[in-house]
Specification:
By secondary structure, the protein is an alpha/beta fold. It has three domains: 3-147 and 275-343, FAD/NAD(P)-binding domain (3-Layer(bba) Sandwich); 152-272, FAD/NAD(P)-binding domain, CATH 3.50.50.60; 347-460, 2-Layer Sandwich (Enolase-like, domain 1), CATH 3.30.390. The protein contains 14 helices and 22 strands. Strands 1, 2, 3, 4, 5, 6 and 17 form a seven-stranded mixed β-sheet that branches. Strands 8-15-9-10-11 form a five-stranded parallel β-sheet. It starts with a strand and ends in an 8-residue tail after the last helix. The model has no long low-confidence stretch (mean pLDDT 97).
Length: 468
């Protein structure tokens, strides 16, 4: 029986990074992955493939709607959906092969099969060919991720009633798609198809989209998506979904009425969130406790109630973000090695990869109000920015929230071009506990999108924005 210092179950961003860091620290490491390819949801059916399709669809949309503004005239423009999907698959393949390389480089033993606990220190691996293998381990990191939530009433059939997994492989542009859920995943994939010409309708239970983000971001993004052709049914709940060979029928109603509405579409994309995936992990064999939502319970060091067994990423509480899982993977590996790492969860950014993009770090205005923290706010719209006008990306804004008395930056929220990259500046500023004055006095290259952050910081220090 092979013996390891650390065994990681699950090879998503959290799992494979935890394995790499463990190996770097001199620990003999094993990685167990249920599927044939490494990388988990993110690399195979999540972050990476969705961004590949988002980029492809954005190129098409710009060619169709913006190129003529730049003096580029095209004719007979059309979508080659099979090629778009093929390119997406190639990107995924290149990325997952990169993880294979990193495992070999770091001398990590990879096992393909379904891992489950036999005892605290023994893990059984059920392989695809029906055989089983058991390995011994001193420490274990659970990094099994999450799966889409699909209520029985939605009749998820993977054909017409789909999740993000199936949406990534649609090879013909649908005429109409209904998305249940106005969160990140639904809006990103809705953007892909809306740009290609699909009629998109979103049914959302809450009173706004991306409800976990700042309200100004919700408003700005909804305005932009409406221009793209999105239709929103806010404060509505879905009661039933049924699919047949060619379409899906969605029944829903307003939260405060009994009047039932109905939409028929080519596809219904269910995007109401994800659940921790611990199926068949054998947690009951070792007595690991879970909360009422099925997440593995951990302490401040991400250790479960069973000493020596840790859990990270989507399988524990917190934002379901690949980069959050990576930070947790590093933290656990370094903790096992005797170091004293830390994570500031307040400074893990959130991003929506629509166009304009949405990005945020720190606290929202509502959170500051609820906590009774005195604050001041500064906003700057991209339409007032030279770089944004040059690229015709004038939708959105940057908002800086700072403490009213100390001027420390408490939150930065932005909707605009390349916001996903721009947010790193805000994370850096807040990591060093910068003030709005610090951000306002930093020299930003001109013309750039990041000048909007400087201008918003100027506005937060007392109506000092220069270009509005």
């Amino acid at each position: 029986m092979a013996k390891y210092d650390v065994t990681v179950i699950g090879s998503g961003p959290g799992g494979y990074v935890a394995a790499i860091r463990s190996a770097q620290l001199g620990l003999k490491t094993a990685l167990i992955e249920k599927y044939d390819t490494l990388g988990g949801t993110c690399l195979n059916v999540g972050c990476i493939p969705s961004k590949a399709l988002l980029d492809s669809s954005e190129h098409f949309h710009n060619a169709q709607h913006k190129f003529d503004l730049h003096g580029i005239n095209l004719s007979n423009l059309k979508v080659n959906m099979p090629q778009m999907v093929k390119r997406k698959n190639e990107v995924v393949e290149q990325t997952t092969k990169g993880i294979d390389f990193l495992m070999k480089k770091n001398k990590i033993d990879v096992y393909h099969g379904h891992g489950s606990f036999v005892t605290k220190n023994e893990i059984s691996i059920a392989k695809a060919d029906g055989t089983k293998e058991t390995i011994e381990t001193d420490k274990t990191i659970i990094a099994t991720g999450s799966k889409p939530i699909t209520p029985p009433a939605f009749n998820y059939d993977k054909k017409r009633v789909i999740t993000s997994t199936e949406a990534l492989n649609i090879d013909k542009v649908p005429k109409k798609m209904v998305i249940i859920g106005g969160g990140v995943i639904g809006l990103e994939l809705g953007s892909v198809f809306a740009r290609l010409g699909t009629e998109i309708e979103v049914v959302e239970y809450m009173d706004r989209i991306i409800a976990g983000m700042d309200k100004d971001c919700s408003k700005e993004l909804q305005r932009a998506l409406k221009k793209l052709g999105f239709k929103f049914h806010l404060k509505h709940m879905v009661t039933e979904v049924k699919g047949n060979a060619k379409s899906a029928t969605i029944k829903f109603k307003k939260r405060d009425t009994e009047e039932e509405l109905e939409i028929k579409a080519d596809y219904c994309l269910v995007a109401i969130g994800r659940r921790a995936y611990t199926d068949g992990l054998g947690l009951e064999n070792v007595g690991i406790t879970q909360d009422d939502r099925g997440r593995v319970e951990v302490n401040g060091h991400l250790e479960t109630n069973v000493p020596g067994i840790y859990a990270i990423g989507d399988v524990v509480k917190g934002a379901m973000l690949a980069h959050k899982a990576e930070e947790e993977g590093v933290l656990v590996a370094e903790t096992i090695a005797g170091q004293k790492p830390h994570i500031n969860y307040n400074l893990i950014p959130g991003v929506v990869y629509t166009w304009p993009e949405v990005a945020a770090v720190g606290q929202t205005e509502q959170q500051l109000k609820d906590a009774g923290i005195p604050y001041k706010s500064g906003k700057f719209p991209f339409k007032a920015l030279g770089r944004a006008r040059a690229s015709t990306d004038t939708e959105g804004m940057v908002k800086v929230l700072a403490h009213k008395e100390t001027d420390e930056i408490l939150g930065v929220h932005m909707v605009g071009p390349r916001a996903a990259d721009m947010i790193a500046e805000a994370v850096t500023l807040m990591e060093f506990r910068a003030s709005a004055e610090d951000a306002a006095r930093m020299s930003h290259a001109h013309p750039t999108y990041t000048e909007a952050t400087k201008e918003a910081a100027l506005a937060a220090t007392g109506d000092r924005a220069l270009h509005i």
